[in-house]
Amino acid sequence: MQTATRKVVDCRDVPSECKCTLTISGTESEVLKAAIEHAITSHGHTPGPELVDAIRSSLRNEK
Length: 63
Known about the structure:
By secondary structure, the protein is of the alpha+beta class. The protein has one domain (about 5-60). It is built from two helices and three strands. The chain has helices at about 30-45, 50-60, and strands spanning about 5-10, 25, 60. It has a three-stranded antiparallel beta sheet, with helices on one face. Helix 1 crosses helix 2.
């Protein structure tokens, strides 16, 4: 059985004032949903397509 590649987004890859170190991993849709919520609630980002695109472009395959 072949499993889907897990995706990762790591706050340490993006400079921020709060020096967040959170890493989120899972399926692409899980990571995207959690990372958007985290970006809004913890980093004060504004919801919208630009945020979704920025987070989606920062997703990496889990090693």
